[in-house]
Design brief:
Order of helices and strands: HHEEEEE
Distance between the termini: 77 Å
Helix content: 25-40%
Number of domains: 1
Number of strands: 5
Structural class: alpha+beta
Number of helices: 2
Strand content: 5-15%
Shape: elongated
């Protein structure tokens, strides 16, 4: 009889214990710690790829300008050559991405002569891309990415590969 009364008085409880909830929160925290940086890196690489596409289209605009004018001079709105100065173009949009209101790169002409040019996508300060280094495209088709963000491109950086 004593065993029977103990069984009757026992009430079945439903729900989760505090330890079970803490384990779930810890698992979610671990997953977030792995997923968020990975996602952030993916988004930053996508923005850089978009800037590369904008540079390629910018180069096409430069070639059209050359075909119409017999010279690259004037693509920045001026009449003189440019040496080592970032100058905004007048023949193409000045920021990338082209199809978004949020801009991450300034599109600039860095060196310009009658027969050659150097185009750069320069990360905008204060954006997520600010520490990614500039991306460049020369009139010869040579590509470069300042992957170490030291403001110059060395031979090993003559690529857009990440």
């Amino acid at each position: 009889m004593l065993v029977q009364n103990a069984h009757v008085n026992k009430v079945r409880q439903r729900g989760f214990t505090l330890i079970e909830l803490m384990i779930v929160v810890a698992i979610i925290g671990i997953i977030a710690a792995i997923a968020i940086p990975s996602y952030t890196g993916y988004v930053e690489n996508a923005r850089a790829t978009d800037a590369q596409g904008a540079l390629t289209s910018f180069a096409s605009a430069m070639e059209r300008y050359y075909t119409q004018n017999g010279s690259y001079l004037g693509a920045d709105g001026g009449t003189a050559a440019i040496t080592g100065v970032l100058t905004a173009p007048t023949i193409y949009p000045t920021q990338a991405p082209l199809d978004s209101s949020a801009k991450f790169y300034n599109l600039r002409i860095f060196n310009l002569t009658a027969n050659s040019y150097e185009l750069r996508a320069v990360p905008i300060a204060g954006t997520a891309q600010a520490n990614h280094g500039f991306i460049q495209l020369l009139s010869t088709g040579q590509r470069g990415w300042d992957s170490d963000n030291n403001k110059t491109i060395v031979t090993a950086e003559n690529t857009w590969a990440r």
